[in-house]
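Could you join me in thinking about how sequence relates to backbone shape in a protein? We need material for that, and I hope you will provide a protein of your own picking. Label the sequence line and the structure token line clearly, so we can match residues to local backbone shapes. Would you write everything just below, so we can both look at the same thing?
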Amino acid sequence: MPQRRALFMKSPSQRSPTGFTLIEVLVVIVIVGVIVSIATLSVDLLGRDSEVEDQAQRLWAVLKQTREESELQSINVGMYIAAEEYEFLRLDQRQNAWVPITDDKLYAARELPEGLRFRLWLDSREVILKPKLPERVTEEEKEEQTEEEKEEAELPEALRSVDREPKAAQTDPPQVVILSNGDIMPFEIQIERDRQAAEWRLQALPDTDLRIERRNKQREWELVRQTHPPVDEKEASANARK
């Protein structure tokens, strides 16, 4: 009997496979779901990078509003662009210098999400951008420095500070300027992800038209929005008759 029973007993390696258990299948499904969700976090089902699109649309809207505000307030506004950030400055006519705008949320400095970066062209030439924004001196800090300089000037020369130097930010003027009459200097700004070819860009044309464009399936730039859309000739003539 023991020998006959041994004939029916097989080792685990000799048994026929029974497949995966329900728990194993569920674990695999969860893992696949996590991987898919990470891969599609920024890129939607159509293959567009929604995060880049949001940043491009936001920047276009901010620049459009900035131009309108500069006309209403009769001020010259500049935008300084770093590789991952941008900020707005105001031209102080008395000092003939660009100063930070600290009292308006519209002009607040903004930073791109991780993995995104700007590229800037002026006069068809690419501008080398600094990684971060320079350190700026506000008007309040300037007044404090002026008072300190007056007090220091009254001290004996041996007690005066020898390392007092203006902050380097004052030598970093904005690359893009929006004049008080609404004119904006021509530029091209592209937003890239991880050094890949840009899918979205902003352009200011010589006629002050501010555009936002994206690449189509043929990898050509197509217009998405603009501030100066072309006027239909029939509509223009009808308005003229009125």
Notes: The longest strand covers residues 85-92. The first helix runs from residue 2 to 8. The radius of gyration is 30 Å. The domain at 53-134+172-241 is CATH 3.55.40.10 (minor pseudopilin epsh fold).
